[in-house]
Amino acid sequence: MSIFGHATDGPPHAYYLGGTEVARLDEGAGQRWFALLRYPDRAEPVRRPCTSYESGRAGVELWVARHHDALLLAAERKHLRWLSHQTWRGSDRDAAARRLAELEQRGA
Fold it and tell me: Contact, 34 vs 48, CB < 8 A?
């Protein structure tokens, strides 16, 4: 499964892992590219300048590979938090709440 998704027409700009956007390439003024990296432990994304779209994409791919496990765990926790508040989902909600409690107990 590809981690790339289309944000606009043209090449993919958004990067997904576990159904959650973890990074995005944006084009600023003057055709200058920058990457927005969404670290799991930070509220705001970190902005990094890129020399080109291609170099930015390569850099994001390396970043995602380096932080893969933490990004995937953060995506799972985000999904479980959402699911555990869906009271109408019954046993799925209960299973999500148990899994979330298990992750929090392990400190993951």
Answer: yes
Q: Are strands 14-17 and 20-27 parallel, antiparallel or unpaired?
A: antiparallel
- For residue 90, what is the DSSP state? T
Output the pTM of the full model.
0.72
Residue 43 DSSP class: S
Q: Do 95 and 76 share a domain, yes or no?
A: yes
What amino acid is encoded at 97 in this protein? A
What does the pLDDT look like over 71-91, one tens digit per residue? Answer: 998 888 888 888 888 877 788
Cα 49 from Cα 24, distance rounded (Å): 12
Check whether residue 84 and residue 54 sit in a common domain.
no
53 residue type, one letter: Y
Cβ-based neighbour number of residue 107 at 10 Å:
5
Report how many domains make up the chain: 2
